[in-house]
Amino acid sequence: MVTVLKVTSNFATAAMDNDFRLDGSLTRFTHKDWTCSNLRKYANANTERQNAERLVAESLRLQDEAEAQTKKTQNDVNKKFDQRLDDLKFWKSEIDKKLDDITEEIDCLETFKRRLQAALEDCYNPLNIAKQCLLFREHRQGIDLVHDDVQKELLKECEVIEGAIALLTRTIEQSKEQLRRNRKAKYNLQMDLKDKLHGINIDEYCQQLRSHSSDIDYNDAAVKISPKSVSVDEWQAFSNKNIIKAEQERETSTNLRSLIDGILQQIANDMKQQGDAVNLAFSRRISETRATKQKLGDNLNKVHQQILELEENISRLLIAIADKEQPLKLAETRLEKRDFRPNVELCRDQVQYRLIKEVHELRLSIKELQNCLYESNCTMKKLLQNQRDLEADIDVKAKSLFIDEVECMGLRKSINIQAY
């Protein structure tokens, strides 16, 4: 390399000195100059050739490295796509499962809510019947308008049913609120699932793209991190939060369904138990009233018989009193006539004393018969009053029996308490 530079320098100096002759004609080179020139050209060609060889070798190396790096990068990117798609599909499957669970829970809770509404609707008929029975029993008369066991049980039945209605109403509102929360959790899962599906579609499309694909192009603006993007941890936390929230709501909904099932069973048991208590009280009261009415009827028959006997007795007393009038007249007439006996004939003989005694006896008998007649008439009035009272009380009992047995129990036969 040094030799080539030295020859070139000598040749340049000779050329400068012998460039032109004085007459301006071209100067001829020496053989040495020619040789040096050739050597210089050889050296320059060799140098450029060596530089070109090195450049070609470097280019091939760079091409091989770039190709290897590109393949390595693309392979790494494809692996990252595979990992990303696995993550997406994993979270998609988790969301799918929770979405199925919360959807099934919503359907179940809807069924329980309909059971609550059906139970609530069926509470109004027994309540109206209980109130109607109370209204019917207000038409009882006299002493039968009593605050008896039936009245107490009917009032208690109204209280039980009204409490059941209030509890069912609150539980329905609670189930509606839980359904709203379930649907919100379901909506969040659906939106997350929709985004996951969209993300899977985009990443699968990107994963399938190759360098020879027809729909690829330059896009300098795409080489950036979007300010709206989130970290992987935030991405996982978002889906995990939706899944956890849906699971919490599902568990709460499941517990609520268990509570609803218990409430429906308890309400049905309470209403049936109280309904049986009311019916039992009605049966006892009807039996008691019927027995009392029977006893009153028996007493009425006895009073009626006694009235007939007393009427006969009064008739006999009247006859007996009338029968004593003529003997009394006879005795008094005899005494009067004997007062006209003359002088000493007007003596107090045994006839006189006996006639006087007879008059006293007859008068006493008449008085006793009249007293007995008076007492009989007084007793007759009392018996007649007692008869009217018994007849009125029997009518009251008949009215009470009609109210309790026909009107109330007839209504209560339509009550059908069932489990929901």
UniProtKB/TrEMBL annotation:
Coiled-coil annotated spans: 42-72, 293-320
Keyword set, alphabetical order: Cell projection, Cilium, Coiled coil, Cytoplasm, Cytoskeleton, Flagellum
InterPro entries in the cross-refs: Tektin-like, Tektins
Keyword Coiled coil: yes
A cellular-component GO term for this protein: axoneme
Subcellular location: Cytoplasm, Cytoskeleton, Cilium axoneme; Cytoplasm, Cytoskeleton, Flagellum axoneme
Keyword presence, Cytoplasm: yes
GO BP: any one term: cilium movement involved in cell motility
Domain of life: Eukaryota
Family classification: Belongs to the tektin family.
Role: Microtubule inner protein (MIP) part of the dynein-decorated doublet microtubules (DMTs) in cilia and flagellar axoneme. Forms filamentous polymers in the walls of ciliary and flagellar microtubules.
Official protein name in the record: Tektin
Source organism (scientific name): Octopus sinensis
Taxonomic lineage from the root: Eukaryota, Metazoa, Spiralia, Lophotrochozoa, Mollusca
